[in-house]
Task: inverse folding
């Protein structure tokens, strides 16, 4: 059945009421604050409330949803880079290949075919002993590597930042980028040694190791004054923005020289550490 919609003006500022057929049982009411000269401007921009009316034959529920206030610095940075082209990450590199998957796949294949040939289910019985001999250790090594592997984090690169990377990014920033976008083995998390020194796990004035921030992704962008910037995005559910702010100088010292460190709050439990090269392209 067709969905019925009605639009009405509310409070001089406009509003929208979307009502479906009774069979769907859903009504959406959007209220917009008045923009008339009689209404004084508000000091901060707030999200407009949305009212959902969920109707059934025997009961009626009214749900009011209000989005969070988007006044974080990361939102402003996202607006600056939103219209810039992104470089696709389609370049093949051996560092992006999981040796655990390769070893496990080859080992299991040799073992399976070796057993099949040994019992004359598959041809090549004369090679069964050799396949079993090499297949077993390869499978064991593959499982060990798979267990100890640390997957690379996603990297978002803007085209203007890619052009500046080779010339203006410091050697340490290049190394950090290359280390976190490849598979690693034996490490608990990316940048583990750096975070251990910066946040001083288990020491006086430090944080517990279980509260350590976890690197989720990185981003390459260019600042408004034309400098290369590598953004580290961490998830830290047990930390506050102040925990990063008071260690801002340590970030600059550890990943320096030649950089400036800035910290900011992202969405939910995400925090951004911006490592900005002091060399400008202008």
Result:
């Amino acid at each position: 059945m067709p969905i019925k919609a009605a639009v009405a003006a509310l409070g001089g500022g406009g509003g929208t009421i979307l009502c479906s057929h009774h069979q769907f049982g859903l009504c959406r009411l959007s209220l917009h604050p008045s923009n008339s000269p009689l209404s004084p401007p508000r000091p901060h921009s707030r999200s407009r409330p949305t009212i959902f009316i969920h109707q059934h034959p025997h009961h009626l529920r009214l749900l009011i949803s209000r989005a969070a206030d988007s006044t974080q610095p990361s939102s402003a940075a996202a607006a600056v880079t939103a219209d810039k082209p992104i470089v696709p990450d389609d370049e093949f590199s051996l560092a992006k290949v999981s040796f655990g998957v390769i070893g496990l796949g080859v080992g299991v294949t040799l073992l399976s075919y070796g057993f099949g040939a040994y019992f004359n289910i598959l041809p090549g019985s004369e090679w069964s002993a050799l396949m079993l001999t090499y297949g077993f250790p390869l499978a064991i090594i593959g499982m060990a590597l798979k267990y100890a592997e640390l997957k690379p984090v996603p990297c978002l690169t803007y085209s203007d930042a890619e052009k500046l990377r080779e010339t203006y990014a410091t050697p340490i920033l290049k190394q950090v980028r290359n280390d976190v976008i490849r598979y690693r083995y034996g490490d608990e998390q990316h940048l583990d040694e750096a975070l251990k020194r910066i946040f001083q796990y288990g020491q006086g004035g430090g944080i517990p190791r279980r509260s350590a921030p976890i690197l989720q992704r990185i981003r390459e962008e260019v600042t408004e004054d034309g400098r290369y910037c590598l953004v580290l995005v961490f998830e830290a559910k047990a930390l506050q923005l102040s925990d990063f702010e008071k260690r801002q100088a340590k970030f600059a010292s550890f990943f320096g020289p030649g950089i400036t460190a800035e910290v900011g709050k992202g969405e939910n439990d995400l925090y951004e550490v911006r490592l900005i090269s002091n060399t400008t392209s202008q």
In short: Residues 5-65 form one domain. Confidence is low (pLDDT under 50) at residues 1-80. The first helix runs from residue 73 to 81.
